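Model the whole thing, not chain by chain.
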Amino acid sequence: MTRAFRSEWFKIRRPGVLLGGLGAMVAFSILAVVLTMARADSGPRDAAVSIARLSQPDGFASILQRGSDFLGVFALGVLAVATAQEYSNGTLRSLLVREPRRIRLLAGKTVANLLYVCASVLVASLVALLLALVLAPGKGITTSEWLGSGLGDTASTIGNLVVAAFGFGMFGTLLALVVRAPAPAVIGGVLWILPVENLLTRAWPNVGHWLPGQQLAAVVARGNDISSYGWALGLGMSLVAFAAITGSALFRWRDVSV
Amino acid sequence: MTSLAIATALAPAAVDAAIRTSALTKVYGSRRVVDRADLVVPRGSISGFVGPNGAGKTTTLRMLLGLVRPTEGGGEVLGGSLDEPRGYLPRVGSLIEGPAFYPTLSGRSNLRVLATLGGFAKARVEEVLEIVELRDRAGDHYRTYSLGMKQRLGVAAALLPQPELLVLDEPTNGLDPGGIIETRALLRRFREQGMTVFVSSHLLSELEQVADWLVLIDKGRLAYQGPIGDLVDRSKATLLVAGESAADLEVIAAVARRLGHGATVVDSHVRIDDASVAAELNRAAMNAGVTLTELTVQRASLEESFLAVTGGLQS
């Protein structure tokens, strides 16, 4: 598995890939901070975006939580493309001749890409924090508690973002293994986690309680109207385990005829 | 010979085989893509794997490489069971269905990805680039390569493990005549180094000049396997005969038939289906008042032998 990881990392570490993905995450986190700050006004403390709300110890954590949708698209897209392109390029057959132990190959590749996605989330979160610390005083937002009593909130939100990225990435991998082509895997995945799940949840709120994308969004929000944090984390990780087992079985047993 | 009966020049058990399969079968739905193939590829040979498009060559190669699971049957590659490809694949190099690499990586980086995965030294990448004479362009993106360069990079990737067995699927596809000649020269070099080369093609003529051993497959079933020369020897030689005038041709044909041999007038000749009757026919024709002006023994070409074995189904 180590060789599979290093082989995949060799591809990821190219400047175009590394900086492209990381740059997209950082750019989005900068956008989230700038827009949140621009919209912050003197509304009530319980408003979603208000100076009073953002001055709370978990004020920065609430900014980070606003990016879970993009995080889902990013993580799902990276893993889906990285996995499915081996089929579309025809490179999978070369890889499997060099590493016939299929589960090791899949595990090494997936871990390398998840590491990349999770590292991107961490870096983007840190950039967002630095930017928010710079911009907040100009809007009259107090940040002293962000790194004081709110440090735990900030750290746990970043941790939850990493968990959600892991989950979305695993679903991207499963989709790629099912459809074996990058475009359908990404388009299908994004359509599912954004409009389809949201429409289903609006039409039948109880259904949202069971949908994977909604659970991962609830994990980032540390619980929301749809699912409690504990339920979302438990069900989300169970669904991730299901994706891992199903994907591994497909990869292990299916003929490689592309 | 029945067209699809397996013709084996040597007893398969007598051959020191790099590849040996037993009733190897692959079924997709109701279609038997490979049907009970008992394949033998001798060690140290260049073996050609020939059959029309869709005959089952690539599926067979994929089963040998552990990419496709046989429906029935099994076999051994370099002494390892087909059920455990990891036992022999580290000693096998392959190029299946044309080269496949990451378009935005350089040729060198593409090889590094595979070398890292296979646990081969970085220096080996430079060695194989040198062998296929691609070092000058190794730093360029794969997508900028010509078809010939892509094929050479595919061969370089196959050579990474210093293989005992090299499996190449249509390696000359799309190459110009110069590229085809270079590929043949490479294959000969590999054989001289002790490698076994198993190379598929849908064109027999491509392998005729380089292969020692031939495996013919048609509609998923083995039609022939053995030394390449034996395939030609198996085909009966015929006799082409001409007389002084066109009117003599029917007389010659009648004489041959009286002697108990098949004879057909073809253009300005009579084709007689047994070359051993030349002297007898000459005497009989003389007695019938015909002077023969031409008497030629004609051997079947490899292509004709192949068509005879496969029942003329080559596409």
